Structures are given as C-alpha cells and as structure tokens.
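Slide 14.
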Amino acid sequence: MQNFSIGIIVFLTSFYTYLHTLCPSVYVGDSGELITAAYTLGICHPPGYPVYCILGKIATIIFPYGNIAFRVNLVSVFSASASIFILYYIIVRFIHIDSILAFISVILFAFSRTLWSQSVEAEVYALNLFFVAITIFFLLSWRTYADDKFGKRYIYLFGLFYGLGVGNHHTMFLLAPVYIIYILVNKSKSLFTIKTIVNLFSLTMIGISTYFYILIRSLASPLINWNTPNTVNKLLMHIFRKQYGQLSPRPHTFELFVSQILAYLKFLWDEWTPFVLILLVIGIFYLIYASKRNKLNKSDIFLYVAIFVMMSFGFVWLLNFLPITQELYLVQVFFIPSYMIIAMFIALGLQCLSNITKNKLVVIFALIPILPLYSNYSENDLSKNYIAHNYGANIFKTISEKGKIFVSSDNQKFAMTYLKVVEKIRQDVSVYDETGCVFENIFGDDFKMLSRENIEIRKNSVERKIINESTTSVYHALGSNIRNFPEIISHPTGLIFQVLRQKEQPANIDYWEIYNTTGINYAALKTDYMTREVVAQYYMSMAEAFFLKGNIPETIECYKTASAIAYDVPQIHNNIGISYATKGMLEPGMEEFNIAIRLNPEYFIARTNLNITYSRFVAQQANIK
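Slide 15: predicted structure.
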C-alpha cells in the first residue's frame, strides 16, 4: 500500500510540473502538423504516427478545457507522467530499491531536460517512452508470474502494447531483438504452445495494424494528407520513409563515431549534472555486485543493459549524425529511453550509498531533485509561450484579402496549418507549401517521384504560372524558392515578401504596429533551437523594414541581433548572408555564409552563395582599382 501511495505521488508530482509548464497553444517544429493531423484525423509526415493521431483526436473530444492545441499537448503530459509512474514500479518491484530512493531517482528523471521538453508540447516522444516503459513492465511481470494462473496475460499485453508502440514510432523496432532474446531465455512450458504463440503474434499484429489508419484516412482525403498514401504501395513507401531516402547518407568512420559518442556523453552531462552522474557510476558498480551475489535476476540485468545499449550506442550508429547543433537538436530526443535506464542505475547508486551509510543520507538524497528542477525549469516552462501561434497569425495579418502565399520552412507551414485548418483563421487566403506535402499539392501527384533537377523545373514552372495568372496579391515567406527568380521583385512586407508585378504597388501599412510580438525578447533567451530561429526571422524582417526607410545603421544592427540569437542556426546565417549580398554589403554577407558553412560543413547552398558573393566581391575590388 505504501508503494502504491508513493507511486501516486510520483505521478501527481510529474503531472503537475508538466501541466504547470505546458505550452498553451501550438509550438515550433512539428507541433502544428501533429495537432492538425490529430484534430482532422489526417496523415502526418512519414511514417505517419497513426497511434498518436488517434490518441490526439480522443484528447480533443474528452478534455473539456482549453483550445485544441492545448488538449493535444495534454497527450504528452499524461504519457510522460504515466511513464514515470511505471518506472517507479519497475524500480521498486523488480530491482528491489527502497520506495523513497526509487521516488528520488524517478523524479530526477522527470525533471531531466529532454524528457521535460517533450512533455510540454505536442510531440511523439513522451508517448514513445510510455510504450518502452510499459513493455518492459509487462515482460518483467510475465517473467515473475509466468507459471501463475494469469501469467499469460502479461505476455499478451506485452505483445499488444509493443505493436501499438511500433504504430507510434519506429524506434520500437530496435528493441525487438532484445525482447525476443529475453523471452527465449525465460521460456516456460506455458508459453511455447501453438495457441500461445499464435495469440502473442496476433495481438502484436493488431497493434501494428494501426498503420492501416493511414490508408483508410487517406482515401477519405483529409485536409492534411501527407504524400496521399491512398494505395498499398504508397502506404508502404510512407511507412518506410522512402521520401527521406537513406537514413544515414554519410559513411561510418571511426573518427565520426568517436565524436558521436562524445556528443552522447555531453547529452548525459547536460541531462543529469555531474553530481548525479556520480550516482550513475556507483549504480553500475552496484549492479555488477548484485549480479555476482545473485541479488538480481540475470536475465533482467541483460534486459536493462541491452535496452540501454540499443537506445544509446545503437541509435548513435543508426542515426550516424554529424555533431553539429542542427543535427544534435534533432537526434537528442531519440535517447530519452536510454535516460530512463540510467534512472534505474541511479536508483541502484542511491541504494548502495544508503546501505553503506545505513540510511543516514536519505534526507540529503531527497534534496537532489532540486538540482534539475532549478536548472531546467526556465528552459522548459512554455506556459506563456505563444511564439509559434503569434508567428503564424502575424503572417496571416500581412496578407491582403484572398491573397496567395508560398511557404517553405516547417515553422511557417506548420503554424499556419494549425491556424488555418483548426482555428479557421483566414479561410480566404491560399497557402502553398513548396514541398507539396501539407497544403494542396499544386505540383502534381508525381512531384515527389521526380529527380531533383526535374523537381526544381516543375516547381519553378508552377509557381511562375500562379504568380502570372493570379488576380490577387501574391506573397512568399523567407526561404521561399521564389526569391531565386531573377525577374521577380520581392518587396519586404512585414514578416514576408510581396511579389510586385507590373504596375502593382505595395500596401502602405506599418505591419509592426499590428503585429503581436509578445514574448519575443523572452523567447530569445530560450535555448530551444527552433524557437530562436523564429525570433531571428523577426529581426531579419525588421532589418528589411529599416533598409526601406534608408536607415542603414539600424538595418545592420537588426541583422547582427538575428545572427546572435540564431548563433547556431546555419539557415539563418545563410539567409542573412543573402540579405547582405543583395544590398551590396558583400563582406558581412561572406562572413555570414562562412558561419553557416562552419556550423554545417555539408551546407552546399551556403557554399554556392559564398562563391557567387566572393566573385562579386573580387569584381568590385577590381573596378575600384
């Protein structure tokens, strides 16, 4: 009873913390797409995330409070809190850690930086953690009670929830070999019967069959229908992410692997603080000691260690990422399940020290969670963060009646998707997504099957036709393909650009007077990569406004501010470089291109822009001489 009471406290503590810091609306990144897909029962980017969409839709129906985005965000709150609750029970029941020490270790995990960040927005990773945690729990329960009357229920539940986990995120596939070995090692007579194996396989496939949601819903033509996977062939291409090509395009090298391992260790340092990592080391030694003394089941130890290896070093090898900020931001969330296993090892470390000191340090141990709570709170407090919502709304405010706009970046199209589809803002505006994935695909059903060269030809042809034939104003966002058209005059208009055709005049409106820029200065202090990218775009747009007024010093100052805020965002530095170069400021432009290349050595567009700008600079110097 005491363990259950403490487990409830664990759940409520994490739930309250996440709810108190929950984003009240749409957030940057994939949030707008996921919320919209859940609300409309649509199709997300590959592999589609059907389980998340179904649960998100249920959340919009059963939760009576808040806007649609807030309700879908709650899926992450419940998923993460339930994961912490399950982890507590695993540590107490199967690792035999004192309940108070287990409470301390799981709350440390609850307050860790990356898990917290994924628990306060609409994303799939908190739900993924839940499926990892609950499948571990069912396996351990089955091993413990395999020969009991109801022992089979645990292995059946494991199969069902494993299948559902695969329906939420592909990373569950990586655990399949570990789980299979664990089951075979702990085989029992009751398991290896034809009936039991067929039932286990059937329940697993029922969970995985949630991917048929994608085919069924695509045939209904939902408002968000990524890749239109309305045939079996298209469904399989969508599930297996054919759109993105090879998972790891670069070769594996020893030097790169070492840098990736160091990056992972840096993640651990940032997640847990050095003091807590000492407990991790002690816990690993105590695990070895407990194994030799038969205090823990050896197959359970294999399960914990193997999951950690697969969810850490396995992902390092599979993702084969460059240790640059942009890719580190994208891959860090994949390691959350490995941090859960680390929380188990930390519990062992606490138990070891408690045994040595005869429980004299328990009060001091209880203070440890204050460290991550204090260090991670401000970074993960999104309770007043409307940056993505206001960004999309401000873009819509800029567009004239029945206007058309071309968008390209995720932060633009996903925020606008949510506002237009869910909140029904500016239904008169036509939004064209240059990837042909989210809004109406204007480039043809075969667009994504074309070669890279033909994709550009098709895109240029279609966009030029729309611009020339439109009877209303046409706009494009920062980073749009239209900015590369030499015959097009792109006039800076607030956060976007208006395409000025023959005899067309820009609107004489001070958009910065009507924009809602609440929280920009606050958000600029955040370490979130994509939030700072959005804020930097505000300052770049302000620079364009100052330039139109002939205020060069303020123009340069705004560009410098944008560069400082997005210090590690190569796309922003490349765009600032383009802005400088188009205004004849070639040297600062080349400097920004060089920063972009230094941040991402594989950023070939920035290299091309640098070469073009350098050629202009050389010619300019020759003319001066």
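Speaker note: The chain has 28 helices and five strands.
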